[in-house]
């Protein structure tokens, strides 16, 4: 009769799987506790596999240079690993010398078991260089461990909260879509309104341009008429001044001729009548004084007339400068439409200045005529007195 033996977990079986089976057989155990134990078991398995991969990558490099491994392990808490490595190297040298086929090497299995039990021993070998592929594999296992921890540690509450957040985000996106559609419709309506406003503004601008052209033509006509009037006045003044100058020159000639005749007659009379020399000399001196007085007054009148002419010429130059300034202001009006009101004010101001200048010229001209008339009257009175 054979005795039934219960199967115990061996080294080849998975101990975590056996432990989970035993937990399921336990009565009155909480499902949450079972899940937490399962999560810890899975994470432990992943961590052990990562340590196994690291040992599988680093052990061949350490065994290829055992002297470096001996230097690091001597004097540390992992010094028993030195003895295992030493036994493995002596066993390997014997196999190489005798050229025997290697059997299942228990020394290598012991080294593997020791390094699997103590995965922190690899932190003592930072100088061991790995290939880029090895680094990539370790990074992949680390990423897998991190992702699995995140996924396993998630609870139903967090999932529900995430779903709620996603639902809120979706609703907000839908509202945003509706608002975008409404904004697009309002934009279209605003565009149509702006286009209609622009058309009305263009029509208004065309009307303003036409009115500007009419005003410019009217101003040009006024300027031309005023300039023609000024030219006519200047020509008349020049004619009158020339006529007066001719009259004065004729009077000068006549006076000079009379003076010459008088001097001749006086000389003859002095030769003939020596007795009346003093008397005739006194008369001659009186005549000379009268002549000088009349000639001096006439010369002063001529100088006054020339001064008045120069003053009028300066005023004409000022009027021409004002006319050029008006032309420049007109060009500015054509160029800038936005400053229409200010330029219209300037035009009104300049027109007022021109009218004022014209009135001033007319006043000066009236005064000048009055002065001439008064001078003529005075000259006539003096001539009557002398006569």
From TrEMBL:
In the UniProt record, does the keyword Nucleotidyltransferase occur?
no
- InterPro entries reported in the protein's UniProt record: DRC10
Q: What keywords does the record list, in alphabetical order? A: Cell projection, Cilium, Coiled coil, Cytoplasm, Cytoskeleton, Flagellum
Transmembrane stretches, start-end: none
Q: Which residues form a coiled coil?
A: 166-193
> Where this protein primarily resides, as one coarse class?
cytoplasm
Q: Where does this protein reside within or beyond the cell?
A: Cytoplasm, Cytoskeleton, Flagellum axoneme
Report whether Coiled coil shows up as a keyword of the record: yes
The family line of this record is:
Belongs to the DRC10 family.
Q: Which PANTHER family match?
A: DYNEIN REGULATORY COMPLEX PROTEIN 10, IQ DOMAIN-CONTAINING PROTEIN D
Please give the function described in this protein's UniProt entry. Component of the nexin-dynein regulatory complex (N-DRC), a key regulator of ciliary/flagellar motility which maintains the alignment and integrity of the distal axoneme and regulates microtubule sliding in motile axonemes.
Its name, as the record gives it, is: Dynein regulatory complex protein 10
